[in-house]
Structure formats: C-alpha cells, structure tokens
Amino acid sequence: MISYPAKCILSGEHTVLNGGCAIVSPFKVYTTTLEYQDAPKLEMFLNSRPFTKRVLNFLQNIALLPRTFSGILNVNSNIPMASGLGSSAAFCVAIANFLVQKGYILSENFFEVARTCENLFHGKSSGVDIAGVISKNILLYSMDNGATQFVPTWKPLIYVSYSGVPSDTKKAVGKVQKYRNDFPNTNIDKNMESATQQIYKALLSLDVKTRLKQLCEGINQASECFEEWGIIGDFLRAHQNKLIQEGALVTKPTGSGVGGHVLSIWQEEPSPCLNLMPLNL
User: Fold this and answer.
1) Each residue of 156-187: b (16+ CB within 10 Å) or e?
2) How big is the chain by its Cα radius of gyration, in Å?
3) Are residues 224 and 163 in the same domain?
4) Does residue 8 contact residue 161 with C-beta atoms inside 8 Å?
5) CA–CA separation, 167 vs 235, rounded Å?
C-alpha cells in the first residue's frame, strides 16, 4: 500500500510560482492511500466510487504507462478536496510512486512525473505541494533551489481549520495574475517573500522573548498579501475574524485562497470546541 499525507503551506503561496520561496509542511492529520490489484481491465476508484482515469490516460498518451496496462487502482483519501491541503498533490505523488514500483519510470524522475500529473488539476504546478506531501519535515522550497528540510527550534501553537467554503485554485491564480498585470510595479511578491523569510527565521530562532512576535508578524504580513491580491472571500474573512475573537493571535489562509483552510497562531491551547487541528512542526 502506498500512503501520503496532506500538506500545509505557512507562507509563500503564489509568489513561489514567481521565483520566491515557500514554507510547507506535511500535514499528517489527513492521508491518501493507493492499492493495486490485478484485473483484466483498467479501473480506478476513489473512496470506493468510480473515479476519472484522466491522469492514467494522460500518462499512457505520453508513454509513461503502457497502453496495455490493466488492473484496479483503489485510492482512499480523507484529504478534503478543493481545500488548500494538497489532495491532488497526494494523489499524483501516489500515482508516481506506483509507476516507480512497477518499473515504468526511474526513481529520479518521480518528482517531475508527480508535478506533471498535478498540472492536469491546477495548471502550472510550482512543485511546492508535491514537496510538502513527500517530505518528512517542514521545508523551505523554491522552484530554483528545490527543497531544504529544517527542524524548528521550538513548537509554536499552530492550528488549521476549514473556512466553510472550498478554495478555487484556478480562480485564485487568475486573480493574482490579473493584479500583477494591472499593477506591474506592485511590491506584493516582495512582501510575501519578506514574510516567508521572517517566518523561517522565527521558526529557527533561539530568542524565546521575540520569536513568537516575529512569527506572528510574518504570518500577518503574508495574510495581508492575500488581502491585497483580492483572494480572501467573505466566508474566509469571516472565519479568520471568528478565530481572532476566540483568542487567536493572528490568522492567514493556507493554499490558493478564496476559500479553503486557515492557519491560526495561539498563545495558549485553544478551546477543544473550536475543532481546530494542530499542525505539529
């Protein structure tokens, strides 16, 4: 059985496609698994229901999977779809791993094949979701320099919660690109990159007096970039405001925006009745 977790991005969304860095962590609260069994025809099931063979057909068309291939691929996933937690990335990584195990692709091509698959779901993939899904630890990632794993020097109280509405990656990417076209001299990508570096430094800081404040400032700055891009929808904003009212120090969307999940940073453990999920870095 092949199994991969969800992912959660702390900072760098959208800017990572424009040359910047992102911080991403595996999010083991959710998982996707894939099992194969021999069968006379090609079938795929997601959570016991027939699922599109678009990815497999694509791989056959580009000669990564034999056209004569047959069998049943059973995919089981509890990663919420269209929520910013990498459901498509986990699926594509599982498929790429399967191809390696079958000997259809070389292990060194694993990452690029997974990213090629993800392009079918969201357009051009930066690879950050793929990197987060396959990593054991939190990463600093860029398209130019790849992934650098690191271990934070402390354990901030970071939680993840659903805003109540799905995210729309293509819509969010379109809005960000339109903003860049309308405001070519904008500094938002620089601001997001600055926020990412500040969060990175905060997570590695040994200064117990300042690191939480530094982390919150970085998260808030990253959230302001979402706001300026126009990809915080009403439900997303309302959910963020509710978390602040409940005692969160700061919040930001995680993923593409519009909807999906929200990160929140806390000084003390939040109330269990809020049903927040811990992001254990």
Assistant:
1) bbbbbbbbebbbbbeebbebbeebbeeeeeee
2) 19
3) yes
4) no
5) 11
Structure tokens at 267: 């000084």
Residue ranges of the chain with pLDDT lower than 50?
A: none
Q: Which residue has the tokens 């009745």?
A: 273
Q: Let me know if 17 is exposed, middle or buried by CB neighbors in 10 A (0-12, 13-18, 19+).
A: buried
Neighbour-count burial of 120, counting CB atoms closer than 10 A to its CB (0-12 exposed, 13-18 middle, 19+ buried) = middle
Report pLDDT for 53. 84
What are the C-alpha distances in Å from 214 to residues 32, 95, 197?
34, 39, 11
Beta bridge pairs of residue 34: 2, 75
Measured between alpha carbons, how far is residue 167 from residues 68, 148, 155, 170, 204 in Å? Answer: 37, 27, 28, 9, 30
Residue 217: which CATH number? 3.30.70.890
pLDDT for the residue 191: 98
User: Would you list the DSSP string of 107-166?
Assistant: GGGHHHHHHHHHHHHHSS--SHHHHHHH-SS-EEEETTTEEEE---SS--EEEEEE-SS-
Residue 104 pLDDT: 95
State the residue range of the domain holding 37.
2-149
pLDDT of 169 = 85
Number of independent structural domains in the chain: 2
Angle at Cα 39 formed by Cα 35 and Cα 45, nearest 5°? 45
d(CA 280, CA 278): 6
What the block records as the tokens of 219 is 């998260």
Angle (CA) 171-92-69 rounded to 5° is 130
